[in-house]
Design goal:
heterodimer; A: 114 residues; seven-stranded mixed β-sheet; 51% strand; B: 113 residues; 50% strand
Chain lengths: 114, 113
């Protein structure tokens, strides 16, 4: 079955450490996205990528970095510069050039930084 | 800029009750409108969508009509089930592109047997 896989489901890190969240898709989608979900705040866009080797900042990119070396993969690094990294992180993908194509989401990674 | 406003939650209903979840939006152009659902411990799934004024999206007994005159996209279901317990997000995208999907804050629905 096609889909998006995020790993791990739960991740614990000490403050000051960088951590990388994995996102892989086999839907052959061009576009991929990272969202952050916090209680009562909905989803906020961190980064997105329309095509391999290209990505754009979303609304809350500070303290995060991404890469898009392969179409299937869009890892997100939460750096030590991110002031409030504890959150639920969702990866998504879509067909880029098809208007109104829905987003397909992974099941998320819950990151806890202490 | 674009924004989506959802009614405050949480909402608790008894099984077979009628459901309405309000959603209004602000957009500069002619957006497409979506409802996504998030079941416990999972990512979001598309529930329904509407791409132009007066369109009605429907799926699994849920419906929402794109009302341009009131800038609204309220979600309704005639008879909710316990399995409908989830978080519901209203969202919009700019015309012709999916990159800037703007979400509301979401509302938690709990359905009692």
């Amino acid at each position: 079955d096609g889909g998006i896989t995020q790993s791990p489901k739960y991740l614990f890190r000490k403050e000051g450490q960088n951590v990388t969240l994995s996102c892989e898709q086999n839907l052959n989608h061009d576009a991929m996205y990272w969202y952050r979900q916090d209680p009562g705040q909905g989803l906020r866009l961190i980064y997105y990528s329309q095509i391999v080797n290209d990505f754009q900042k979303g609304d809350i990119a500070e303290g995060y970095s991404v890469s898009r070396e392969k179409k299937e993969s869009f890892p997100l690094t939460v750096t030590s510069a991110q002031k409030n990294p504890t959150a639920f992180y969702l990866c998504a993908s879509s067909i880029w050039d098809q208007a109104n194509s829905p987003l397909h989401f992974g099941n998320g990674t819950r990151l806890t930084v202490t | 800029g674009n924004s989506v406003t959802q009614m405050e939650g949480p909402v608790t209903l008894s099984e077979e009750a009628f459901l309405t979840i309000n959603c209004t939006y602000t957009a500069t152009g002619y957006p497409s409108l979506f409802w996504y659902v998030q079941y416990p411990g999972e990512g979001l799934q598309l529930l329904l969508k509407a791409t132009k004024a007066d369109d009605k999206g429907s799926n699994k007994g849920f419906e929402a009509t794109y009302r341009k005159e009131t800038t609204s996209f309220h979600l309704e279901k005639g008879s909710v089930q316990v399995s409908d317990s989830a978080v519901y997000f209203c969202a919009l995208s700019e015309s012709g592109a999916n990159s800037k999907l703007t979400f509301g804050k979401g509302i938690t629905l709990s359905v009692r047997p």
